[in-house]
Specification:
Helix content is 41%, strand content 14%. The chain contains 28 helices and 19 strands. The radius of gyration is 31 Å and the shape is globular.
């Protein structure tokens, strides 16, 4: 309804309604016309009083509140936030149930008295049949967000109000209640309807996450940065691939209606199988996947699910109960013995009060390893806070790590700052490149680790903290400690267990790693097909020493995939950057060449065909997985069906 409807048009339409019993077309909004007609049919008179009990029994209100515990619980925090936005506009924020009874209100003290005169208080009914046209009752009747301004209210006694209301829907599209902002019509704002609609979506998203805890949840947006915002779509999926819940944005993104919930397979609306979706999530839980709808629209999806083990469609329930669950470290394992030994050592201390120090060259995946270690332990649902000690300016690193109180120094935040160490409370703190931490800060960090408490900058009282500690460096810390560049006592404190990640040139699983990276990149770029590598190029890539390790390899492959022309699916020399082409043509044989083919092999000859390399990687993955086809496929970064096809075996 339009707040800018002229008073003259409203008076003319109202008089015509009273004289003829019908509202003339063209003078007012069609929804307003329908609402006025419903109000007349309910026996209301514009100059009369509402047909409702302004003060129902306390027992009735208690029953309504007891019937809507989740709606109330998830609405109250949002209502408090919403009220802060309108605190000085003489307004009241209202939550009503599905029948229009007000359950909870937050109001400006100046406006509350006026609101109470028209029973805009908990327990009163604002159904259209009781109070005529009003935002709450009309939003219920029209099942959409509406705004009713001044004289648009059917009862003249409510004409001092301006109201904006939006329905709150469940994950299956059921109407749960109404969120409303009501205020003095003289203070009406053009953005109020948008504000209340956004707040209603926030409540819907909170309810969906709470009621679909045992389902897989897809968070969708057309841009990866939009995931996690109020504009994201959320779709809940059952273990066998059926869409069992969604918010309004998710339904619109997939071209569905509320009636399609419970009757639509995920594969019908997105070009992905559920087990492939979950496989990618287990390998790259923080990386959104690029998916397409049948209409060709690109959506980025991120999976969220409970920590409990899930049985995917490709895994029988009985097998899932017998086979040990794959943790995040195992899902990164593509067959290299040294990497697996490092993971096995780290796995034995996860959950114990033992700090882990991850060493290795730049680009070998130390942070990825640390994140997987966190996800494999009992703190997996708590925060993982990563800090690059080499990337924070020295004059900021103290307040960034330890936090500060309000006004602690010039430029400090007025509200103070929690600090990354306290943000990690209950979870895991990851200090990357700790060898570059200034000596003065090393002293403070040592005190934190010894006393398990943090004293923010400018504070006099310490705050207890509890986190698992994982550090990483490409430096030789023992040598740095002997030379006085790193505190020896801190070195022994963070070195509960040291694991060394091998450089890419030293790993024996190059082909499997490359295939998994290509599978991830194909998903990331929405290619929709398996990306291959020309045999001669693959042999050269395998022999190259890769000074930038996995980071360099991933960047090269990402650019190469982007260079593929229409109809191409195989990377060749023309897709490589010029500097790498020159380096590859003169690259010496790497130490990995002897290891790539396994013990007793004669290395990786340049003439080895793509098919031979592919079969070697598959054999290696199957041996590592002890014949488990699903696990081998995950390690290779391909689907189970693709693995069967490469082996020329029928899928079960």
């Amino acid at each position: 309804m339009r707040p800018n409807t002229s008073p003259v048009a409203l008076r003319q339409a109202r008089q015509h309604l009273l004289d003829s019993g019908q509202c003339p077309s063209g003078l007012v909004d069609e929804r307003l016309s329908r609402s006025w007609s419903r109000s007349m049919a309910a026996g209301l008179v514009p100059t009369g009083r509402p047909q409702a009990i302004d003060h129902p029994s306390s027992g009735t209100l208690r029953h309504v509140l007891a019937s809507n515990p989740e709606l109330l619980a998830h609405s109250r925090p949002v209502m408090e936030y919403l009220f802060e936005q309108v605190r000085h506009s003489q307004s009241v924020v209202v939550l009503a149930d599905r029948r229009g009874m007000l359950m909870h209100t937050l109001g400006d003290p100046y406006f509350v008295d006026k609101a109470e005169r028209v029973a805009l208080t908990s327990g009163a009914s604002w159904h259209e049949a009781h109070r005529g046209t009003n935002a709450i009752g009309t939003a219920l009747a029209e099942a959409c967000a509406v705004e009713v301004h001044g004289g648009e209210h059917f009862l003249e006694r409510n004409s001092f109000l301006t109201c904006a209301a939006s329905p709150i829907l469940s994950a299956t599209g059921e109407l749960l209640g109404i969120l409303d902002i009501s205020g003095d019509y003289r203070n009406g704002h053009a953005h109020t309807l948008g504000l209340v609609s956004t707040a209603a979506r926030m409540i819907e998203n909170r309810l969906l996450a709470a009621t679909c805890k045992r389902n897989i949840r897809l968070h969708l947006h057309s841009a990866p940065e939009g995931i996690g915002s109020v504009a994201e779509g959320i779709v809940a999926v059952s273990a066998d691939g059926w869409i069992v819940g969604a918010n309004r944005v998710g339904l619109a993104q997939l071209g569905l209606h509320a009636g399609d919930v419970g009757a639509t397979l995920l594969e019908r609306v997105l070009d992905v199988r559920l087990d492939d979706l979950l496989s990618h999530h287990k390998r790259r839980p923080q990386q959104p996947q690029a998916l397409r709808t049948p209409q060709g629209s690109l959506l980025f999806a991120q999976v969220q699910m409970d920590a409990a083990a899930w049985v995917t469609p490709s895994q029988p329930a009985t097998a899932a109960r017998v086979a040990p669950a794959q943790d995040a470290l195992a899902l990164l394992d593509t067959g290299d013995a040294r990497w697996r030994a490092a993971a096995d050592k780290a796995r034995r201390v996860v959950g114990k009060p033992i700090a882990v120090l991850v060493q290795g060259e730049s680009g070998v995946g130390k942070e990825v390893f640390a994140r997987a270690l966190h996800a494999s332990g009992p703190r997996c649902d708590a925060p993982f806070v990563a800090i690059n000690c080499a990337a924070i300016p020295e004059h900021l690193i103290e307040s960034e790590l330890f936090g500060h109180v309000a006004g602690a120094f010039t430029g400090a935040r007025k509200e103070g700052h929690l600090g990354r160490l306290r943000e990690a409370h209950g979870g895991t703190l990851f200090l990357d490149e700790i060898g570059d931490m200034p000596l003065a800060l090393q002293t403070r960090l040592l005190r934190v680790l010894q006393e398990r408490s943090v004293t923010p900058v400018g504070a006099s009282k310490a705050v207890p903290v509890d986190f698992a500690l994982v550090c990483a460096t490409h430096n030789q810390l023992m040598q740095a400690a002997e030379q006085g560049r790193f505190r020896q006592d801190l070195y022994y404190r963070i070195n509960g267990l040291t694991v060394q990640l091998p450089a890419l040139r030293e790993r024996s699983d190059f082909v499997a790693l490359l295939q998994r990276l290509l599978a991830d990149l194909a998903t990331e770029q929405g290619l929709g097909f398996d990306v291959l590598v020309a045999p001669d190029l693959l042999a050269r890539l395998a022999a190259y020493p890769w000074p930038g390790n996995l980071r360099q390899l991933a960047n090269v492959l990402r650019t190469a995939c982007a260079m593929l022309a229409e109809g191409e699916d195989t990377l060749g020399w023309e897709h490589m950057p010029d500097d790498l082409v020159q380096a590859l043509t003169v690259a010496p044989t790497s130490p990995r060449s002897e290891a790539a083919a396994g013990p007793g092999a004669e290395g990786l000859p340049a003439s080895l065909s793509l098919q031979q390399l592919s079969h070697a990687a598959i054999d290696q993955a199957l041996q590592a997985a002890r014949g488990n086809m699903s696990q081998a496929a995950r390690q290779l970064g391909i689907s189970r069906q693709t693995l069967y096809r490469k082996l020329k075996m029928p899928a079960p």
